[in-house]
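for the recovery benchmark. tokens below, seq after
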């Protein structure tokens, strides 16, 4: 057995022992290093899309409960943004319009406007994001919601995508980059 073969076998065995946490840390470090060096990194080829939500082409989601709509950014959006470090929230009572900006998300890579998928009045903001903006990354559809809106026109929901259309939209968009 040659020395090179023994060495490669040893490295292979050691690599198998590496835990998922260690791999995640290496990937996070590599992604941050690539971002700092302005190198493009490969984004995962999938994103989590929830079936019962509606989606805007600007990558916000909306969950409707009667006349109330909960709004956040999609898993696809947070994945492309990277680590979120700040979320600009609107005031409760502020008027929002479909497609209009109501706040911003700042990440280690960029700052992006957040557009509202429905028109109405802000009735609640996720204050938890002031101290834990990374909830947008770790739980974009649950704990990372951004605002709740009292909708003024439920018919606007018809112009949004369902989960299947949004998944295809993301695939097409990613294939262009």
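predicted aa per position
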């Amino acid at each position: 057995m040659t020395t090179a073969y023994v060495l490669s076998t040893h490295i292979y065995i050691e690599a198998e022992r590496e835990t998922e946490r260690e791999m995640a840390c290496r990937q996070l470090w590599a992604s941050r290093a690539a971002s700092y060096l302005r190198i493009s990194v490969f984004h995962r080829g999938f994103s989590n899309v929830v079936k019962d939500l509606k989606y805007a082409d600007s990558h916000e989601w909306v969950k409707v409960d009667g006349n109330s709509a909960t709004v956040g950014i999609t898993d696809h959006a947070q994945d492309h943004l990277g680590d979120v470090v700040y979320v600009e929230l609107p005031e409760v009572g502020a008027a929002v319009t479909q497609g209009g900006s109501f706040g911003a998300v700042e990440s280690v890579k960029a700052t992006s406007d957040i557009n509202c998928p429905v028109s109405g009045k802000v009735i609640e903001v996720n204050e938890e994001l002031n101290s834990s903006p990374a909830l947008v990354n770790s739980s974009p559809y649950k704990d990372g919601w951004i605002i709740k809106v009292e909708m003024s026109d439920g018919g606007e929901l018809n112009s949004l995508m369902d989960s299947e259309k949004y998944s295809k939209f993301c695939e097409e968009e990613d294939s262009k980059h």
